[in-house]
Write a structure and sequence with these properties.
CATH superfamily of the largest domain: C2 domain
Oligomer: single chain
Order of helices and strands: HEHEEEEEHEEEEHEHHEEEHE
Strand order of the largest sheet: 4-1-8-7
Largest sheet: 4 strands, antiparallel
Helix content: 10-25%
Bound molecules: calcium ion
Shape: extended
Distance between the termini: 40 Å
CATH class of the largest domain: Mainly Beta
Number of strands: 15
Length: about 350
Amino acid sequence: MAALLNKLMKRDSDDACTLWGMLHIKIIQCTNLRNLDRLGIKNIKTIIGKDRDKSDPYVTAFLEDYRLLKTRHIDDDLDPKFNEDFYCPVGHCTKGITFCVSDKDLLRDESLGKYFLPVKELIQTVDDKDIEADSSLVKGDLKRVGLHKVVYLNKKKDHGTLEFFVEFIPVRMLGKTMEVPGTYFTQTNGNSVKLYMNADDDGSSPLVKFGNDGKVWEPPRLWRDIYDAICNAKTFVYMVGWSIDTDQYLLRGDELEEARATGKYNPQIGPLLKQKAEENVTVNLMQWDDYSSGVMFPGEFVILLISCCSFSMIQPTSNQPYANTTLFYFFLRNDEDI
Ligand SMILES: [Ca+2]
Ligand SMILES: [Ca+2]
């Protein structure tokens, strides 16, 4: 099997090889990038309130047309520090990895420079010297290869540098687990998944019997479950969503009145999360920061088109009053692919 894999890796043209395994790439930083945002206006800071007169760089990397990664962009910084790790499963015949540094702009991003890493720098095989150091190795097998580089963009000193680390892990070295590497939490077993049809049940759901003993299906209640889960949280609350409307109530009708009158916790999402944060429960919100969050629709509302031609209105900025507290942590991510 190893011989076949090695043969696959070495086939193709003189320049191309098949990378099969995992690429771990860390984009570290850039230095001395060119300024493509210079407006030629003196004292721009006094005109628009802040210094936007520098490039807003981000980094992407490709195997031919396949995009491996994209970092966040950093506003107005010619020496941006990214320190972002990416784990990319690959099975591609390629001549190498193309790193691109770009300046984010409102209409059309511009290139700040490129660097091409030939694939052959990542393909190394076990030789006699390696076996002397580790007798468990097999001559001819592909090795795990790591490269740390600081390179000039476009091979020009005045275009600035890109610093990165790239590691190729051949498929034979990957574990049998399906676990995604580099995640915040390791894989756990024995978890449960609950599917919901509606946010809540207003009593109008049809009576559904199942089994031979007359069991009746009870529709699960999403918002009630969320409320109970947050109330019972002891260590952390992580919320992920396109947008989170902190004004929304999780309870309705009699339950809402009861919670207001006697409940320990506020049934409104924003105040409820604040209460939990004040109990020293870590509360993290993750929401998307995309074009529709402000550039195209600068108002309070965003119309998010959902499949089946239905649409809903959400308020992406309604949680901003909470963002100013130290109790909440926001992780905003640009995504231009929606
Ligand atoms: Ca700028
Ligand atoms: Ca720009």
